[in-house]
């Protein structure tokens, strides 16, 4: 096993990729028109016939699909295949509104697993390795997604699922796991637990991690690498498109290669929907060109990223997306200023603190007040009150200069903020008014 899982696709020429994408898009649009009443209606409304789509360049002619469309057709309204062709159902972990339900045929599961296997190989995994999966198993796609990817690679999947962190560490140690798969926030918690249990991470056979399902910064990557003595890789995905493995980073750590042979990405202006050029940040949109059960057309992810077709030192030619900066809908508007939780995290790490934090937003006397609770390090905990206050002021100034808005900083006791075994809850918005840019 070399550096790639599917070299012929991962290093294909642009012409070859475009030919595949065009053929799949044509087939997909036909499938949608013939088998999904929702799409037939949408296409008819703009006078679009499947015959109008000749190549991947025609993609802007197609209408968008949104999460609301999935909710309106809940649970199975956008499925394009009869029940007997479905082999799996998952659902999104949506925190608001109705959850969205997704389905897969045997081929869909295979292509999704290929994405996860490509990610594992890009992170350095081989068939010799034990892959410790601490993503939740269930309707969430994390656990089963990495599990199937590991098995397709021929490696050994260890389906630990999330929870019981000391037991996780015990298994890492006893089974000799080589790769850890979980959210970056849970990886931090596992790393802290390793230290608490008095284990030197250098004694563990762990070499790498495949972390995703929530935004995280490059600084957090370095912190996890230090805590666990591993290489920490990013994996991106969303249930509506497949699950983990839609894109993944390589050893260049310079963006995530998109499995564009199945999931065609675009960046659009979140306000106007107009396509944006490479290098410009906007909303990420995917078209499931190779999917049978749920062939979503131009799905608005609400994730903010940018694309680049520039050469990557790893040799992969698959387009890269920038680490998602957050979502158009987790963007906080604080007194008119757009703030992403990932920016707050960046400042905390830059100032030498651990990324254990929570953002609380309130409205006091009609004014937005944002308080960032950050845990003190063990070393600082024994400092005098005056020293802690000075540290709070230092952090407050750094926040102001990066975010462009003033925040209150409250340093709290080490390990006093809630830890998460899945996606971390970073923001508590108490304003009770819609502050989100929902499209
Ligand atoms: O989170 C799938 C997944 C599982 C990805 C395990 C990676 C690892 P959903 O629950 O549908 O699916 O949530 C999808 O999570 O639109 C992003 O906002 C966010 N997200 C996922 N991966 C990343 C990442 C899974 N690597 C939503 N960086 C997406 C930033 C991510 N955000």
Structural class: alpha/beta
The Rg value, from CA coordinates, equals 22 Å
For the biggest β-sheet, the strand order reads 4-3-5-6-7-8-9-14-13
Strand content is 15-25%
Distance between the termini: 44 Å
The main pleated sheet reads as: 9 strands, mixed
Give the full name of the CATH homologous superfamily of the largest domain. ANL, N-terminal domain
User: What is the oligomeric state here?
Assistant: single chain
At CATH's second level, what is the architecture of the largest domain?
Answer: 3-Layer(aba) Sandwich
Shape category: globular
* Share in helix: 25-40%
**Count of DSSP H/I helices:** 12
Name the poorly predicted regions: 433-439
The structural domain count equals: 2
Question: For this structure, what is the CATH class of the largest domain?
Answer: Alpha Beta
- CATH topology descriptor of the largest domain: Rossmann fold
Question: How would you state the average pLDDT, rounded?
Answer: 93
Q: Can you give a write-up of this model?
A:
This protein has 439 residues and is of the alpha/beta class. The chain folds into two domains: 1-325, 3-Layer(aba) Sandwich (Rossmann fold), CATH 3.40.50.12780; 332-437, ANL, C-terminal domain (GMP Synthetase, Chain A, domain 3), CATH 3.30.300.30. The chain contains twelve helices and 20 strands. The chain starts with 6 loop residues before the first helix and ends in a 10-residue tail after the last strand.
């Amino acid at each position: 096993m070399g550096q790639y899982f599917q070299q012929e696709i991962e290093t294909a020429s642009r012409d070859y990729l475009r030919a595949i994408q065009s053929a799949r898009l044509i087939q997909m649009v036909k499938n949608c028109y013939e088998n999904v009443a929702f799409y037939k209606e949408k296409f008819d409304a703009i006078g679009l016939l499947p015959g109008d789509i000749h190549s991947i360049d025609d993609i802007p002619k197609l209408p968008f699909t949104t999460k609301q469309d999935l909710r309106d057709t809940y649970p199975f309204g956008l499925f394009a295949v009869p029940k007997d062709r479905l082999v799996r159902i998952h659902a999104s972990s949506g925190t608001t509104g109705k959850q969205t339900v997704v389905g897969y045929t045997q081929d869909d599961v295979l292509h999704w697993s290929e994405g996860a296997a490509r990610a594992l190989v890009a992170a350095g995994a081989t068939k010799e390795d034990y892959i410790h999966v601490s993503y939740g198993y269930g309707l969430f796609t994390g656990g089963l997604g990495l599990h199937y990817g590991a098995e397709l690679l021929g490696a050994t999947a260890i389906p630990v699922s999330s929870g019981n962190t000391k037991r996780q560490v015990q298994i890492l140690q006893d089974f000799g796991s080589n790769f850890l798969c979980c959210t970056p926030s849970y990886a931090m918690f596992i790393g802290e637990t390793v230290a608490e249990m008095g284990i030197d991470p250098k004694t563990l056979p762990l070499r790498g991690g495949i972390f995703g399902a929530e935004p995280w910064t490059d600084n957090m990557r370095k912190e996890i690498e230090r805590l666990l003595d591993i290489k920490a890789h990013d994996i991106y995905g969303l249930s509506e498109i497949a699950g983990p493995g839609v894109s993944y980073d390589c050893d260049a750590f310079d963006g995530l290669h998109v499995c564009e042979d199945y999931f065609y990405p675009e960046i659009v202006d979140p306000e106007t929907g107009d396509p944006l050029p490479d290098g410009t940040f906007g909303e990420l949109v995917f078209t499931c060109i190779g999917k049978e059960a749920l062939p979503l057309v131009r799905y608005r992810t609400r994730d903010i990223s940018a694309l680049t077709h520039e050469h990557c030192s790893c040799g992969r030619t698959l387009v890269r997306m920038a680490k998602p900066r957050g979502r158009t809908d987790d963007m906080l508007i604080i007194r008119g200023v757009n703030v992403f939780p990932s920016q707050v995290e960046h400042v905390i790490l830059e100032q030498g603190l651990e990324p254990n934090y929570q953002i609380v937003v309130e409205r006091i006397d009609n004014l937005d007040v944002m308080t960032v609770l950050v845990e003190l390090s063990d070393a600082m905990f024994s400092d005098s009150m005056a020293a802690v206050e000075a540290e709070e002021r230092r952090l407050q100034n750094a926040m102001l200069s990066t975010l462009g808005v003033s925040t209150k900083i409250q340093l709290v006791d080490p390990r006093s903020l809630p830890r998460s075994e899945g996606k971390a809850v970073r923001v508590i918005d108490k304003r009770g008014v819609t502050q989100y840019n929902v499209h």
